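Sequence in, structure out. Go.
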Amino acid sequence: MVTSNPRLVTHPKGRGTTSMVWNGDGVQQIILVSNRGPIDYAFDEDEMPIAQRGAGGVVSGLVSAVGKRPATWIALAMNDADRAVARARGKATIPNAPELANIALRLVDVPAATYDRFYEGISNRILWFAQHYLLRPTGSARFSARTRRDWETGYRVVNEAIAEAVIEELASSGPSTPVFFQDYHLYLAPAIVRAAYPEALLEHFVHIPWPESRYWELLPDDMVREIFAGLAANDVVGFQTDRDARNFLEGAERFLEGVTVQQAPTGGTGVLLWQGRRVLVRAYPIAVTPREVQASANSTEALDEALKLRDELRLTDETQLVVRVDRVEPTKNIVRGFQAYEHLLRNNKELRGKVVFLALLVPSRQGMAEYRRYERQVRAIIDRINARYGTPDWQPVVAIFGNDRARALACMRRYDVLLVNPVIDGMNLVVKEGALVNRRPGVILLSRTAGAYEQLRDHVIGVPPMDVQATAEAMLEALETPLEQRAANALALKALLNEENAKLWLDAQIADLREQARLARRKAQVAGAAQRVIPLEPERDLEKVVPGHRDTLVM
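Output:
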């Protein structure tokens, strides 16, 4: 049985209400919906749940984007401690987190087995791999009876539970409260909310890549069509890059029966006309908030950890430092990065003893065999490089496994080379954070398949992620880049990134969502005026009633 927890914060009830919630500055409340919330819970030694800030770049970015805006954050209870809190507290402001005082957290409680089928069975094992082009059609069967079970009794059930919570929130705050769904976990929920509230303002932002339409053909057809239909139930669908938006528009033509797609001649912006509705599709490249990143990197605790690490590594001003910061998972391409470094040491003996590779790695999704196997591969190549090239006075690779974002940011102040070589990435915020905090100045190696490359390409060295030799050559180029050129690129990156922040990213989506609502109202007014013309013939009669109606109706 799926349960949606009772709420401690009450509002006027009734599906027909048009009330909205605003703060003292006249800023409208929003509803955020994601798999992970801004707070995770864990049991202490007395089996009492304790709160800690939610991990992950998406959560950190969303917290910065919300700022002081009043928000209800609907997320899933991901573990037993979360479930205990969900049942005991329902929806309430987040305790012991004054910086999140404007956010009311609502945890949706589903059985652990249901969540596992949703999260590991479909979200990560199927959708994550598919959207990063990592499916292996010629390998072992990925779409089995178990996949169908996980879809029907996991992914679908959890999306229904999330949608139910959103519907209840809209009954309280009013149907014009903007709702922002996040990422690949919740593709089906918008259609359920739309059925309950046809006038709702819905937006869905997809943080990861969106493959071209032929690649979606590798998945079961009914699943793909339901995913596209779920996203098309929104008023706005956002992606990281123009390429992702174009891929979605092309896929919609393939998988949504009766759709009309209007795509801009250049760029990725376009419109879907489907089932009487207009859906805006465009790119909103996600941003970090420079002030927050700098504050975290410069905190006393982070700097102390970075200095301690520098002493342990015996770094001098002459030592060149290669840094990477990543979750340990196949799309991050960590093994090939180390293979490139190994190639560099093998062919450039003069660098031995003068370069150190510092890898700050966060174990990820340890419940999945694919991820455990990949971590073993990462550890194996680290051991191999150190055994082959290390000396009593020099360790070529220093790897630290654990999740400490502030320490990672502090360490990136010192890099000479920042290696960011994912197989493919929606955006990649590490590269933006590194460019903002670095003081060396350093050079960035960035996969040409990362979304951030479209923004930063003029000031980084692009690498083909699957080409180990090319990555090694780029690493040597970065280490040998003259200081003047390094400084110029570093300054240009800082100037570019200081112009954006997470709040502006969210504000752009809110503005487009409001414009969509305005266009929908205008369309309804035009339709009402047209119905009052009797008879509706010829075409020029309608033009007299509603001048310019042709431009209005063709959207």
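Check: The chain has three domains: 3-208, 290-497, 505-553. The radius of gyration is 25 Å.
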